[in-house]
Amino acid sequence: MNLSDLFEVFEQSAFRLESLAAYKVDEETDAFREFRDSGVIRPGFNHEWAAMVADAVAAGKTMKRLRLLSSPLSEYERFEVAAYEAGLAAGEHIRVADRSEFQPVKDFWLFDERWIAEMNYTDEGAFLGADVREVADQDVDDLEAWRVAFENAPELRQRFPLDER
Predict the structure, then answer these.
(1) CB-neighbour burial class of residue 108 (10 A; exposed 0-12, middle 13-18, buried 19+)
(2) By the 8 A CB rule, do 143 and 112 touch?
(3) Which of 10, 18, 32, 35 could bond to 111 as cystine, CB 3.0-4.6 Å?
(4) CATH 3.30.870.10 correct for 3-164
(5) Residues in the chain, pLDDT under 50
């Protein structure tokens, strides 16, 4: 089982913990540059992600994300806060929390409370791949803490309304 497989086969829920101040995603380079220049996300950006979220939500699945952010936001984080709109519109639940309130942590995806995909990145934030495994007994307390952190965190647009990026 790999990360791509999990997006295809999960049945109920997908949860993402995102903790880096910046990610180096080649597909975002132009959109990030345009955002820095204009403060606007181009129409259609992230449409593939939004379509996948919409399909999952239509099938009765939930997709949640807890984004740990800097204070003040990094330039990249401001871009992300704007770019998340496509996922929100498709039904993704995104909440935010201050990174300084947490110990350093490795990003992950959790699927159906059964599979965890630990995300690996370079120091610059380029994705190297995911280590996928079944959730083990020693994961339960940490995963429960992240569930509680998500539930207690403000919704993205509650904290960052569209007109206040």
Answers:
(1) buried
(2) no
(3) 10
(4) yes
(5) 164-165
| pTM attached to this predicted model | 0.94
Find tokens 């909440």 and name the residue.
Answer: 95
For residue 165, the model assigns a pLDDT of: 43
Torsion of CA 149, 150, 151, 152, to 10 degrees: 50
Q: Are 66 and 18 in contact (CB under 8 A)?
A: yes
* Closest among 154, 156, 30, 36 to 84, alpha carbons compared: 156
Alpha helices, H only, 84-139: 85-90
pLDDT at 162: 76
| 163 φ, ψ (degrees, to nearest 5) | -85, 5
- Report the phi/psi class of residue 129: left, alpha or beta, with left for phi > 0 and alpha for psi in -120 to 50: left
